[in-house]
């Protein structure tokens, strides 16, 4: 009795194989997600800067509750610009790393596809409370809610495209039929 052999991986270099249109579209969707992430980051930094007095008040109360008075109000107020700058720098660094993973996905790296799938599922699930209106206020909260819903839709589209038949053959280096 004989069994069919499993398909052998294509040994050609990724540059020799054409990138499927689904992967090109998934790349574009991921770039849209990353641009919206930068917009969300800038909104967050803007909100943090505008709410700095409330933040300093809350931090002052927290230090008063613990009984330590090591930091004065002026020290906390002086630290806010540094916090905003660090937030933006670390956020942009993370977006840059994600962009590198998206580029690796385009080059046919299966690990990048799996990493983006996990990140995308996490992003989509974290958007569910926003879909049902939990925690969405007026003003910038509403704008951030709409942006996160659009991000989730783009993410789901990219994940679906990365796992279609032509995409699977591209990532797993299966021979073309």
Secondary-structure blueprint:
Elements: H1 21-50, H2 52-66, H3 73-106, H4 110-131, H5 140-162, H6 165-172
Keywords: Membrane, Transmembrane, Transmembrane helix
Protein name: Integral membrane protein
Organism: Rhodococcus artemisiae
Compact overview of the structure:
The protein has 177 residues and is mostly helical. It contains six helices and no strands.
Describe the model.
The chain crosses the membrane at residues 27-49, 78-102, 114-136, 142-163. The chain has helices at 21-50, 52-66, 73-106, 110-131, 140-162, 165-172. It is an all-alpha fold and 177 residues long. It has one domain. The longest helix is centred in the middle third of the chain and has 34 residues, at 73-106. The model has no long low-confidence stretch (mean pLDDT 85).
- Biggest sheet, open or closed, and with what strands and sense? none
Q: Helicity level, as a percent range?
A: over 70%
What structural category characterises the helix and strand content? mainly alpha
- The average pLDDT score comes to 85
Uncertain spans, ≥5 residues at pLDDT below 50?
A: none
Order of helices and strands: HHHHHH
Q: How far is the first residue's CA from the last residue's CA?
A: 25 Å
The overall strand count is 0
Number of domains: 1
Shape label: elongated
How many H/I helices? 6
Query: What is the percentage of strand-forming residues?
Result: under 5%
Q: Evaluate the radius of gyration.
A: 23 Å
């Amino acid at each position: 009795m004989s069994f069919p052999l499993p398909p052998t991986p294509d040994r050609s270099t990724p540059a020799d194989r054409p990138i499927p249109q689904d992967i090109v579209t998934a790349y574009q969707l991921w770039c849209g997600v990353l641009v919206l992430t930068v917009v969300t980051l800038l909104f967050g930094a803007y909100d943090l800067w505008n709410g700095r007095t409330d933040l300093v008040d809350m931090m002052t109360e927290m230090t008063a509750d613990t009984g330590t008075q090591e930091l004065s109000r002026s020290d906390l107020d002086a630290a806010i610009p540094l916090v905003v700058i660090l937030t933006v720098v670390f956020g942009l660094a993370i977006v840059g790393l994600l962009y590198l993973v998206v580029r690796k996905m385009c080059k046919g790296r299966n690990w990048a596809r799996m990493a983006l799938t996990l990140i995308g599922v996490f992003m989509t699930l974290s958007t569910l409370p926003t879909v049902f209106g939990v925690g969405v206020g007026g003003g910038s909260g509403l704008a951030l809610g709409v942006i996160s819903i659009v991000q989730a839709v783009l993410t789901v589209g990219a994940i679906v495209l990365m796992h279609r038949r032509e995409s699977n053959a591209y990532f797993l280096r299966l021979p073309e039929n």
